[in-house]
Design a protein that fits this description.
Layout: H1 15-21, E1 31-36, E2 46-51, E3 59-65, E4 69-72, E5 77-87, E6 93-99, E7 111-112, H2 113-119, E8 128-129, E9 135-137, E10 142-151, E11 156-164, E12 169-177, E13 179-182, E14 185-191, E15 195-197, E16 206-212, E17 218-225, E18 237-245, E19 250-256, E20 272-283, E21 291-302, E22 306-312, E23 316-318, E24 323-332, E25 339-345, E26 357-359, E27 373-381, E28 388-400, E29 404-405, E30 409-418, E31 423-428, E32 440-445
Length: about 450
């Protein structure tokens, strides 16, 4: 066409059509050059640059999470991150998506978000998922991925999205911060006696201490003891409660005795009863979280008992010769050692302690077991009691396991005292015969 003098010619160039007509790959660009001839000289050539944003290739990434703050409960707290990748260009892109998990240790250690998404049973992505690593996004399309990652102290994660059409690469990243708060509690438990006689199990007391070892206050702190029966919650008892426990604050509960029957009250010789306490609380600002800690104290149960036997050398005596020797044997029939053995004989006068006799024994400490014995003896005159049965009662006392008083053991022995006496009479009969011999008559009486 002819353009008149002073005229203007305006035209458009369809680049997509040109690329298609010549089977060329439409890449991403922002500048192209057009050549025109508009001079009187047939050899003149003019060039013009077309500049601007053609918006052929582009990608955006948005990263969020289900919470903005989380309690770090021993490195096991998981949170869900949400990623949305959008192709805001006009040609399809093949997209990769990675996350550094809050570490700056090189891209080779970043996690593959799309692979994680699939491994966790991902849902439907807007784009066409073609492998564990790539997703194809059409122009204007978006794809979303939700993955669960553990939080163990890292508070900032940066994600990277990369899109490629085969020749050109576009990128975007987004950083999301989650505040990680240490939420923790500790508890300790100690028994006043770790070895106890089975007669004394109800007197065991415990000391408890609970501490807030985290970064935020703990609310509604409670200590619950299983009373030595972990499979029976009916006898659990509450040691104590604290409405609010500040950071680094410690609360003590001392000399606590279980307030209902439990493991120790039914224990017998040879049992080991382990009581466990669980301390729990709610971190301030995290009403759905609970922190817990537990501690145990073990108590070994023993039998603490003794037996005593008392044996006289004779069970019958004459009042004129009423010296009787008694022998004593004390036996530790329990499993615990005993100490401070004391043996006392009432000397036959149970209502009068003034004449009690302390028996010297061969041992005052006996190891646990029936083979541990102590012996002693004592001789006394039963003549003053007169004729009749004389019964002597002996008692043995001892202590065991941190001063526990062992049940008293007793035994008795009876000796019969007799009056042993003779009388004799002698009478003379008349003389008989020429020699003047006399005859005598003797009579002996008991």
């Amino acid at each position: 066409d002819m353009i008149p003098a002073g005229g203007m010619f305006e035209a458009r160039v369809n680049l997509t059509q040109i690329y298609s007509e010549f089977a060329l790959d439409l890449g991403c660009f922002s500048t192209f050059i057009a050549e025109t001839r508009s001079s009187q000289s047939p050899t003149a050539t003019l060039k013009d640059f077309a500049l601007g944003d053609f918006e052929l290739c582009g990608i955006t990434l948005e990263k969020t999470s289900d919470v903005n703050a989380v309690c770090n409960l021993g490195g096991t707290t998981d949170i869900t991150y949400m990623y949305t990748v959008t192709n805001n260009g006009s040609i399809p892109l093949q997209v990769t998506l990675t996350d550094d998990e809050g570490t700056d240790d090189g891209a080779e250690n970043d996690i593959d978000v799309i692979a994680y998404w699939e491994a966790q049973g991902g849902g439907e992505a807007d784009g066409d998922l073609v492998s564990l690593r790539y997703v194809d996004l059409a122009a204007g399309a978006s794809a979303s991925f939700d993955i669960v990652l553990p939080v163990a102290g890292a508070v900032m994660n940066t994600a990277y999205a990369t899109g490629s059409n085969g020749t050109t690469v576009v990128e975007d990243n987004d950083t999301h911060t989650v505040s990680v708060v240490e939420c923790s509690i500790s508890v300790s438990k100690d028994a006043d006696q770790t070895d106890v006689c089975e007669q004394d199990t109800d007197n065991v007391t415990y000391d408890y201490s609970v501490e807030n070892t985290g970064d935020v206050a703990l609310l509604n702190v409670e200590l619950v003891d299983d009373n030595g029966t972990p499979n029976n919650s009916s006898d659990d008892f509450t040691v104590g409660t604290v409405a609010e426990l500040a950071v680094d604050e410690i609360a003590d509960f001392d000399d606590i005795t279980p307030n209902q029957p439990g493991g120790l009250s039914t224990a017998s010789d040879g049992d080991t009863v382990t009581n466990k306490v669980v301390a729990s609380g709610t971190p301030f600002g995290f009403p759905t979280e609970t922190v817990e800690a537990e501690a145990s104290a073990a108590v070994d149960v023993y039998s603490c008992m003794i037996e005593i036997t008392k044996t006289p050398d004779e069970t019958q005596r004459c009042a004129q010769n009423a010296d009787v020797t008694y022998s004593y044997v004390v036996t530790n029939t329990g499993s615990a050692d005993i100490d401070n053995l004391v043996v006392v004989d009432d000397a036959g006068t149970p209502g009068d302690t003034s004449d009690d006799v302390t028996i010297t024994m061969s041992e005052t400490s006996l190891a646990g077991g029936a083979s541990a014995t102590a012996t002693g003896s004592d001789t006394r005159d039963l003549g003053p009691f007169g004729a009749g049965d004389v019964t002597n009662i002996v008692s043995a006392n001892a202590t065991s396991l941190e001063g526990f008083v062992v049940d008293e053991a007793t035994d008795d022995a009876t000796v019969t005292v007799y009056d042993c006496a003779l009388s004799v009479t002698k009478t003379c009969d008349d003389a008989v015969g020429q020699n003047g011999d006399y005859g005598y008559h003797f009579m002996v009486s008991n």
